[in-house]
TrEMBL record:
Domain YhcG PDDEXK nuclease: start-end pairs: 64-214
EC number, as in UniProt: 3.1.-.-
Protein name: Endonuclease NucS
Signal peptide as annotated in the record: none
PANTHER family from the UniProt entry: BLR8175 PROTEIN (PTHR30547:SF0), UNCHARACTERIZED PROTEIN YHCG-RELATED (PTHR30547)
Main EC class the enzyme belongs to: hydrolase
GO molecular function ontology, one term from the record: hydrolase activity
UniProt keyword Methyltransferase, yes or no: no
Species for this entry: termite gut metagenome
Keywords: Endonuclease, Hydrolase, Nuclease
Family matches, as InterPro entries: PD-DEXK-like_domain, tRNA_endonuc-like_dom_sf, YhcG_C
Keyword Nuclease recorded: yes
Source lineage: unclassified sequences, metagenomes, organismal metagenomes
Length: 226
């Protein structure tokens, strides 16, 4: 990337934060957090983690859904259970919503889905105001596995049949994992017709040293080219 392209990137980068701050009505502390967790990269990436179905049904959704979610405010140890992760999110719901986006409205935890004689439970159920649809979030503390998608797609089918209102759009499913291999995600998403996505949660913010280096690079790029 030459100097002109680099400067163009940083202009785009900062313009994004101006527009995003206005849209989300961020205060100064919330904006600082977005800068620390690289919200721009998370929302403006190539979106390999979106299913074919999600891209077709919601072509406008990509900049509304994050690839990475920082949950440093939960204070999770490296090894933790899904129950501990879920409990931490519920106890810090305000911070979690600020992280995933203010258009997310929390509906319920362990939302029951009755199918036949069996009852299934969605870890977290939200409603997205911008997309006007229900969003089911399944939590996984392990590395992403393709078989997880079958469970999520089953939940979406049940939600759309028995829970979704007639004036609402098709439901979206988000699989929130601690880790995901890019190639495995691309293969899993390529033929999926259900509106789903894979996102990773990060226990800690990006180290200060990395942020300082990025700031120094940005300052250098702003200098006039001789």
């Amino acid at each position: 990337m030459d100097m002109c392209k680099q400067k163009a990137y940083f202009v785009k980068h900062h313009l994004f934060y101006v527009l995003y701050s206005h849209k989300e009505r961020l205060n100064i502390n919330e904006l600082r957090r977005c800068l620390k967790n690289h919200t721009f990269a998370s929302l403006a990436g190539d979106k390999h983690n979106l299913s074919k179905g999600l891209k077709e049904i919601y072509p406008q959704a990509a900049p509304m859904l994050k690839d990475a979610v920082f949950v440093d405010f939960l204070g999770l140890p490296q090894k933790h259970s899904e129950k501990k992760l879920q409990r931490g999110i519920l106890e810090n719901m305000k911070e979690f919503v600020l992280e995933i986006g203010k258009d997310f409205l929390f509906v319920d935890k362990e939302y029951p889905l009755q199918v036949g004689n069996s009852t299934f439970k969605v870890d977290l159920l939200f409603f997205h105001r911008g997309l006007q649809c229900l969003v089911a979030i399944e939590l996984k503390t392990t590395k992403f596995k393709p078989e997880y998608m079958g469970q999520l797609e089953f939940y979406l089918e049940a939600i759309d049949r028995d829970v979704r209102h007639s004036n609402e759009n098709p439901s979206i499913g988000i699989l929130l994992c601690q880790e995901a291999d890019r190639s495995v995600v691309e293969y899993a998403m390529n033929r999926s017709l259900s509106p789903t996505m894979i996102a990773e949660y990060q226990r800690q913010l990006i180290p200060k040293e990395v942020l300082q280096h990025s700031l120094e690079e940005f300052t250098q790029f702003l200098k006039p080219v001789k």
